[in-house]
Amino acid sequence: EKGGFPSFMDKEIHDQPQAVADTLLGRLDIDGKLTLDEMHIDETVLKTIDKIIVIACGTAAYAGQVAKYAIEHWCRVPVEVELAHEFRYRDPVVNEKTLVVAISQSGETMDTTMAVRHARQQGAKVIAICNTFGSTIPRESDAALYTHAGPEIAVASTKAFLSQVVACYLLGLYLAQLRGNKFRDEITTILEELQTIPEKVQSILDNGKQQVQALAQRNQDVGSVLFLGRHVGFPVAMEGALKLKELAYIHAEGFAAGELKHGPIALIDDGQLVIIVVPSKRGRDSLHAKVISNIQEVRARGANTVVIAEEGDEEVREFASEVIYVPQTTTLMAPLLTTVPLQIFAMELATAKGLDVDQPRNLAKSVTVE
Ligand code: BG6
User: Fold this and answer.
1) Could you report the predicted ipTM of this complex, rounded to two decimals?
2) How far is the centre of ligand 1, averaged over its atoms, from the C-alpha of 57 (Å)?
């Protein structure tokens, strides 16, 4: 059942091209229009919403944070992302014009379920993005958009994360289409890029895994790892850090690279491992330049800099102890690629330490208590 892989996590990392492809399947009709069958919320309601709040926990919340950049850009609707347990116990401003998007792999996370109930009591419409058909959260929501990642067994989420980002993007494009924020041909171009993601993820698995494995093995004794990113690379950095905490029990933190000089740079000491997610230079030149200067800042203070960059980016080489290249894509699609080496890094480091990557200590796959 592990498909010849040493762990479920390894298998699920390799399932990702299929998980992304399956999540896209059947949602585009022949003339390029996006259709979401599970969208049982009236179109007139979706046209009038003035705010989106994403609620989730753990990795699912990072998927939401990635999606915020895309949905705001495409739909011009403000998107807040909030941990479900925080949302529930403050007094959030939620009403009939709020669309709540609840993201959950299992569909059974109690914190998220309680937040869904609270949102609906306030009159909000709730869409569940979920991987488990018929589970509590989609049943209690107004609509469900299923990720088709297949069962995820390893406690730490991998393929569900990529599928959640894809599902959120489909939702964002659907809303943009419905609300007239984007023209059909623009949406088609974005969807075309999305459809190239499975083969690009596959190429990372085929060509990059050994390099990341060797890197992890060399670093199995590190005491802490810092992850830096900007824009969509910021939630990717946090997700990379979470994976390392969960699997390898190593202290890790993900920072917004721009925040470095406001605090975290004090942590940089000789030999500190810093993993930096670099945005495409073709996408937004200024963003790329800013991250390059962040790499220089930590390197000047002795950091060991490992860089995740897109193929063809030669500029980063000069400032990196090691570069891990991922295929080229657009700025907003990049998280679907840059996350993959970080997943492999955490898994291989934990494996090198002799840890159980499928069942990390103290964690449960689905937390059904508040
Ligand atoms: C945690 C799991 O307890 O719950 C994480 O260990 C997961 O992997 C989080 O991201 C949220 O779970 P779900 O099922 O609501 O996506």
Assistant:
1) 0.91
2) 6
